[in-house]
Amino acid sequence: MDKIKKVLLFTENNESFELDYQQFREKLVSDILNSIDSSIDQIIQTEEKTPEPEECAPKKNLKTRDKILLLIAENKHITAKALAQRVCVTEKAIEKQLANLKAEGIIKRQGCNKGGHWLIIKGE
Q1: CB under 8 Å to 81, separation ≥6 — which residues?
Q2: 58 φ/ψ angles, rounded to the nearest 5 degrees
Q3: Global pTM?
Q4: Nearest CA to 74 among 91, 87, 63?
Q5: d(CA 107, CA 120)
Q6: How many CB atoms lie within 10 A of CB 92?
Q7: Domain shared by 11 and 42, yes or no
Q8: What is the biggest distance separating any 2 CA atoms in the chain, rounded to whole angstroms?
Q9: Is 102 in contact with 29 (CB distance < 8 Å)?
Q10: Residue 6 belongs to domain spanning
Q11: Residues 115 and 59 both lie in one domain
């Protein structure tokens, strides 16, 4: 917002520089609305990929960490909460497993916590 104020002050003080305020305002509003639409679409896509809470990972002979890796491979945007529901363990247990997998260099988080996704760096 501070940059916008500077641009407006510059144009007011500089008569040789013309700015169509209506066009500027329309472009600004358009950019903001597009950004909001994009964020909403990303949230909807992530929620559509999140499984139902009562579903547990079917393979009982796998270790928890292997179930986590399979679920991350299916949906790189899966949350710790969704992992806990699918693996049928607590979120705390999932967070501990994720920390171990990150420390071992098997997975890493790309981007921010809410909008990012998981990357499997190397398979076991």
Answers
A1: 91
A2: -70, -30
A3: 0.53
A4: 87
A5: 4
A6: 10
A7: yes
A8: 75
A9: no
A10: 2-48
A11: yes
- What amino acid is encoded at 53 in this protein? P
72/42 same-domain check? no
Residues 20 and 60 in one domain: no
- The closest alpha carbon to 58, from 67, 48, 50, 66, belongs to 67
Interval 52-94: pLDDT, tens: 555 665 556 788 899 999 999 999 999 999 999 999 999 999 9
Structural domains counted in the chain: 2
Cα–Cα distance, 96 to 103 (Å, whole number): 11
Query: What is the Rg, in whole angstroms, of the alpha carbon atoms belonging to the chain?
Result: 23
pLDDT value at residue 13:
67
Same domain, 38 and 70: no
Assess whether 25 and 61 both reside in one domain.
Answer: no
**Same domain (yes/no): 115, 95:** yes
